[in-house]
Design a protein that fits this description.
This protein is elongated. Helix content is 48%, strand content 16%. It contains 10 helices and 5 strands, in the order H-H-H-H-H-H-H-E-E-H-E-H-E-E-H.
């Protein structure tokens, strides 16, 4: 009777161990983007070499943020990417957004301006439809609330000045920052954006509610009404 054949360990097992060790000892900077994606996919795909899939995702969506921000419908088109894998990617994205939000919530916004810009860009720049966000602040300019007021089409979202000011009064907010995205990739404010901003400023003025800025974000950049001299 012959000796039973020894079960061969898949080649990627040792690779996973080495990748985990490099991550834990050297931090995220020790890994390339595709290796970071591999780490995320390990949790959802335990019995498959995830390197080819990670590289395919980067080719399709350009970079690591592009993969995380990709719409679920687009991720579902990738062969071999299961619902579990998509959930893992979206969980990483949501965790990053939540962490960024907690870093600015309850803090003076004007002293953490770049973090605010980074948060707005991370959460809105890659969206495929326009969304209108309002950031409400108290007398100390501390961020009290962050709310999406409306979501529209690929090139338009309605924003209603009276609703925005009414919500500010409900929260006891004394200052506001407006923010919306341009899925087209061009963050230049449109005339409609300018007109709507002026309408919000006019609605808030009698109630001493200040509009500090209106930020327009896109995947290719960000514009500030304040910096552009539009407020």
């Amino acid at each position: 009777m012959g000796t039973p054949a020894k079960k061969q360990t898949p080649h990627y097992h040792g690779h996973r161990d080495r990748l985990r060790e490099r991550f834990l000892t050297g931090g995220p900077e020790a890994l390339a983007d595709y290796e970071m994606l591999e780490l995320v996919l390990f949790m959802a795909i335990p019995r498959r070499d995830t390197k080819p899939l990670a590289k395919e995702l980067l080719t399709r969506f350009k970079n690591f943020p592009g993969v995380l921000n990709a719409p679920v419908a687009e991720l579902q088109k990738i062969d071999g990417l299961s619902d579990n894998s998509i959930t893992a990617l979206k969980a990483v994205q949501a965790s990053a957004h939540r962490m960024m939000k907690l870093e600015i919530l309850g803090r003076p916004v004007l002293n953490n301006w770049q973090r605010l810009i980074d948060y707005c860009a991370a959460t809105m720049a890659h969206e495929t439809r326009e969304s209108f966000r309002v950031l409400f602040m108290n007398k100390k300019n501390e961020l009290m609330a962050d709310e999406i007021q409306h979501t529209g089409t690929v090139d338009h979202t309605p924003a209603y000045p009276r609703e925005i000011i009414k919500r500010a009064l409900e929260l006891g907010a004394t200052a506001i920052i407006l923010c919306h995205n341009h899925p087209s990739g061009d963050s230049t404010p449109s005339q409609a954006d300018i007109d709507m901003t002026n309408a919000v400023i006019a609605a808030g003025a009698p109630l001493k509610i200040i509009i500090h800025d209106h930020i327009v974000v896109s995947k290719n950049g960000t514009n500030s009404f304040k910096t552009m001299g539009l407020i």
